[in-house]
């Protein structure tokens, strides 16, 4: 009697990547700069930021590792008729996106799905990941489909709503409408507006969905972590938003919800927890930040749903 072999699907989980230790920061930064080494000043600035958030311990890569493990576990628990095997593919660090695709093929995977640990699509972010993975898959004869965005998935919205409500509760004795809620995401060059890129609209859709569920009207969107490239980036920047909140006496209490980020990385732990927090203190504002999604079961539910949906397409 023959036994039907269970279907195996590879899942390439893509993210920006981060160094594994402080001595890898220069190589990482050089890759971001397309092979051009940073100046000593640029390298010191980035290394100082990492040192400020991690000290002698470097946990950032661990966050992504845990997310990939949790997604694989959830997929196999939820869909026992299929065996899912998750692989990492990083944009600026090893294992690179191409490495992840190659490992799937080496392991005998013939069908795969790619998903990025970022809920909102832009041709300059998620689109770039997909392009690299697709090109490598095509060259190796691997059939691959991709999740483009999942910014309004009910489980994702629920996870973010829980975090905003939890954040608002930290302001004891302060009415909900006395707290200014600012949703943030990584800025991108302004030229995406001319390209009719969906990124800004998707971010606003997520923000509105959370605000409606939480019953908050005192909110806005702000950008953060813009690159220093000599071209205009989307604004207003979160630090400018904080200055406006103070100048216009909009509120004395601010809650930041970084909806564009799904884990504790540099843009959250430094740009918000250190830099924005310092600005808020100087302005006399009380600033709180919502918890990152990391391996929240609701986020894993979101990812498992959107990945599985790709396997059911004709």
Automatic annotation (TrEMBL):
<comment type="pathway">
    <text>Porphyrin-containing compound metabolism; protoheme biosynthesis.</text>
</comment>
<keyword id="KW-0627">Porphyrin biosynthesis</keyword>
<dbReference type="InterPro" id="IPR033644">
    <property type="entry name" value="Ferrochelatase_C"/>
</dbReference>
<feature type="binding site">
    <location>
        <begin position="49"/>
        <end position="50"/>
    </location>
    <ligand>
        <name>Fe-coproporphyrin III</name>
    </ligand>
</feature>
<feature type="binding site" description="axial binding residue">
    <location>
        <position position="16"/>
    </location>
    <ligand>
        <name>Fe-coproporphyrin III</name>
    </ligand>
</feature>
<comment type="similarity">
    <text>Belongs to the ferrochelatase family.</text>
</comment>
<keyword id="KW-0408">Iron</keyword>
<keyword id="KW-0479">Metal-binding</keyword>
<dbReference type="InterPro" id="IPR033659">
    <property type="entry name" value="Ferrochelatase_N"/>
</dbReference>
<comment type="function">
    <text>Involved in coproporphyrin-dependent heme b biosynthesis. Catalyzes the insertion of ferrous iron into coproporphyrin III to form Fe-coproporphyrin III.</text>
</comment>
<feature type="binding site">
    <location>
        <position position="186"/>
    </location>
    <ligand>
        <name>Fe(2+)</name>
    </ligand>
</feature>
<dbReference type="InterPro" id="IPR001015">
    <property type="entry name" value="Ferrochelatase"/>
</dbReference>
<keyword id="KW-0456">Lyase</keyword>
<dbReference type="Pfam" id="PF00762">
    <property type="entry name" value="Ferrochelatase"/>
</dbReference>
<protein>
    <recommendedName>
        <fullName>Coproporphyrin III ferrochelatase</fullName>
        <ecNumber>4.99.1.9</ecNumber>
    </recommendedName>
</protein>
<feature type="binding site">
    <location>
        <position position="267"/>
    </location>
    <ligand>
        <name>Fe(2+)</name>
    </ligand>
</feature>
<keyword id="KW-0350">Heme biosynthesis</keyword>
<feature type="binding site">
    <location>
        <position position="33"/>
    </location>
    <ligand>
        <name>Fe-coproporphyrin III</name>
    </ligand>
</feature>
<feature type="binding site">
    <location>
        <position position="129"/>
    </location>
    <ligand>
        <name>Fe-coproporphyrin III</name>
    </ligand>
</feature>
<keyword id="KW-0963">Cytoplasm</keyword>
């Amino acid at each position: 009697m023959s036994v039907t072999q269970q279907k195996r699907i590879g899942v390439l989980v893509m993210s920006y990547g981060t160094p594994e230790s402080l001595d890898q920061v220069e190589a990482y930064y050089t890759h971001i700069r397309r092979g051009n080494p940073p100046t000593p000043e640029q390298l010191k600035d980035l290394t100082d930021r990492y040192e400020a958030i991690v000290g002698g311990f470097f946990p950032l890569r661990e966050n992504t590792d845990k997310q990939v493990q949790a997604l694989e576990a959830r997929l196999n628990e939820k869909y026992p008729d299929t065996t899912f095997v998750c692989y990492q593919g990083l944009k600026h660090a090893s294992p690179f996106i191409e490495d992840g695709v190659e490992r799937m093929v080496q392991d005998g995977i013939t069908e795969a799905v790619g998903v990025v640990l970022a809920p909102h699509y832009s041709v300059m972010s998620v689109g770039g990941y997909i392009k690299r993975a697709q090109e490598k898959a095509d060259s190796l004869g691997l059939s691959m489909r991709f999740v483009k965005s999942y910014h309004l998935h009910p489980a994702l919205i629920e996870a973010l709503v829980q975090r905003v409500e939890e954040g608002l509760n930290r302001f004891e004795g302060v009415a909900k409408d006395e707290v200014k809620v600012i949703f943030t995401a990584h800025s991108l060059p302004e030229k995406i507006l001319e390209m009719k890129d969906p990124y800004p609209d998707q971010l606003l859709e997520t923000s509105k969905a959370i605000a409606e569920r939480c019953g908050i009207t005192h909110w806005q969107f702000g950008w953060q972590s813009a690159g220093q490239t000599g071209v205009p980036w989307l604004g207003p920047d979160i630090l400018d938003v904080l200055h406006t909140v103070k100048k216009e006496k909009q509120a004395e209490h601010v809650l930041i919800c970084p909806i564009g980020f799904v884990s504790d990385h540099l843009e959250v732990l430094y740009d918000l927890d250190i830099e924005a927090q310092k600005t808020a203190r100087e302005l006399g504002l009380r600033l709180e930040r919502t918890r990152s999604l990391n391996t929240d079961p609701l986020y894993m539910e979101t990812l498992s749903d959107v990945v599985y949906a790709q396997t059911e397409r004709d």
